[in-house]
X-Pro dipeptidyl-peptidase (Kitasatospora paracochleata), 552 residues
Amino acid sequence: MDASPYYSCCGRGNESQLKTYDAQGRPVGFPLYYDNYFVPRGYAVVLVDLSGTNRSDGCVDVGGPADVTSAKAVVDWLNGRAAGHSARTGGTTVKPAWANGSVGMIGKSWDGTIANGVAATGVDGLRTVVPISAISSWYDYYRSDGAPLYSGTPADLAAVVESASAAPHCTAVQQRLAAGAPSNGDWSRLWQQRDYVADAAKVRASVFVVHGMQDLNVRDINFSQWWTALARTGVDRKIWLSQTGHVDPFDFRRAAWVDTLHSWFDHYLLGVDNGIQRGPVADIERAPDQWTQDRTWPAPATATGTLGLRPGTLTTATGRGTATFTDNPALGEDDWAANADSASPEKTVFTTGALTQDLRISGQGSITLSVRSTTSSAHLSAVLVDLGPTTIRNYEGAGEGITTLTTRSCWGDSTPGDSACYLDTAADTAPAGYTIFSRGWADLGHYAGLDRTVTLTPSTPYSITFDLAGTDHVVPAGHRLALIVAGTDSGLLEPPPTTPRLSIDLAHSSLRLPMVGGAAALRQTATPTPSRALPGLPAGRAGAATGPENFR
């Protein structure tokens, strides 16, 4: 089951496929390969129009109770707990005699987000969910610890997907969506209603998470906080982490993905003991099209270590000294990383020396900063960088790490009006002198919590702790690990209303990282060795062009 708002407005998959219908209004073309591949293998495939979209009544709720309830109602119907009808006006009662009540939800982006939301209701009959590039808390799509990631509100996204017949009746709902998402980043009732992590304890379905570690649309905090919360439930979990941006695994690892997904559904929906639940939990893309596996995630032997900050240096010793920078909203993480060893006023950089052995960071880190601002408002960015030459997927390119080819391959059976053959893809790669592999952003005015914004008193010290996005990255021997702290991350974070100069008290600041082997794994490093400016990705940024209107 794939519940989506995109079946008539925007399409699904790399080819933006829409639902199509015959003259009598019966479905002919189902987007994606799910029906082509799985129906011949004993499954039924259900594509659900979310409230207010395509042929569904109601209003778009952007991940809220109406969105989730409209999809949950279909799970209830498939399990005989809800009534279905042959027409919008009533008609005859329709029962899914072809269904055994065992449901798996899947989908990318908003679709996968709804799968998370329905799973968090604990509904009977939902056996598994496969959220791909999905949100776990809508606050963390639009905001980051008080800082705005986008200037708009969920009302803008609702307007993109709402059907022409629904829109005239949904003005009040859109007004509530806009009013409930204050630009100051406060944790409002609207965000609380759309926080599935808070209800992770209710999840009874197994969960197969897929996410791009360079997803600058649905940013990686969404998968890592969901994964961590689910660990406490005891449900079966599996995870794939690619080096792409906001991309479906069908388009970056097609054959392996379809085979793995088939085995996953066979086990959790049909009860086949094929061993997938006993296999590796994590598949991680280390370099373009090069994958490794682990029996758990975060990786075995991972322990969180605390690193100190000294001027220019990232160390296992206690931090000391101060560092200063001035917010420059015109510059962002690529500008900072490419000039990591060049002093400039808009950033401060802390690096290790050249590593004498590989260092693997696996999981979700955090940073604590003691900061003074010269103005009444300030935003902070923290970026982890691997300084050294490599080849990466070009996640800032148009395909966010993939190139779409002109050839096609077929996955399942075609029917008249619904081809099973899809455009092939290949990795889009680029040489780079650095790799940005984790990020975090915060508003200093939310140092005491998200409930309300505090107007900063200039020159007063404030201590703030915020999370960095989950990652799994190996900094190879010979490279250096860097932490960059700055203000506005251009294209990824909206600037504050003032332009502050910030001073960090390094003795009361630290970085906490999940490292295989703990902090001891970082002790074998040489003295920091600055280098010249490093080449970055080709011009163009997925994040700058990626907003709620491109969520899909």
Q: What stands out?
A: The radius of gyration is 24 Å.
